[in-house]
Write a structure and sequence with these properties.
By secondary structure, the chain is of the alpha+beta class. It has helices spanning 14-29, 39-58; strands at 2-4, 34-36, 75-83, 86-93, 99-108, 116-118, 122-126, 131-137, 145-154, 157-166. Helix 1 links the parallel strand 1 and strand 2.
């Protein structure tokens, strides 16, 4: 649950405010508390937390409709900061089957330019445990968020994964 850290109205009910503070403390003790300072900050936090949670689900996902249930590719996109203005994007298959025709592209997630990518994020086959990497250049004028769209095939079916990145 996310709470605003922005100033509240002066005519707020103090009993309600105290009850809210108690509720926030109980959530914090359970690790369920987030705080935001603006709507943009809230958006970035929610996207980041959803990506993390989906990533955890993907690592345990089993496609019961595929031959040999449990034998599937699971594609994850990781970002590693190298130095100011440069990050390494890595597309890795953490699954148990080969992904075919893997291709990732970056699109801006807001107003601004798309980050420049040095190298290619494509592979004819991405075996379990294998990865492909490229350098992403983040500079002035680049959108504050980006989406890595990764497509791949498995057993003749096409799949797409979208990974949201906070760039700043």
């Amino acid at each position: 649950m996310y709470f605003s850290s922005m100033p509240h109205a002066e005519n707020v009910d103090t009993d309600q405010l105290e009850a809210l503070r108690d509720f926030k403390i109980s959530l914090q003790q359970q690790g369920l508390l987030g705080q935001y300072s603006s709507l943009e900050d809230l958006k970035i936090q929610v996207i980041s937390h959803l990506n993390s949670d989906v990533g955890q689900l993907e690592s345990t996902w089993v496609d019961s409709n595929s031959a040999g249930a449990g034998t599937v590719p699971v594609i994850r996109v990781n970002r590693e900061m190298l130095k100011a203005g440069q990050d390494r994007l890595t597309v890795v298959n953490i699954g148990t089957a080969t992904a075919d025709e893997v291709s990732s592209k970056i699109i801006p997630g807001g107003k601004g330019r798309t980050p420049e990518v040095i190298g290619t994020l494509e592979a004819e086959h991405l075996d379990p445990g294998d990865s492909i990497s490229a350098v992403m250049v983040v500079a002035m004028g680049v959108a504050p968020t980006a989406v890595v769209v990764t497509t791949f095939k498995f057993q003749g079916n096409s799949y797409m994964k979208r990974t949201h990145l906070n760039l700043f």
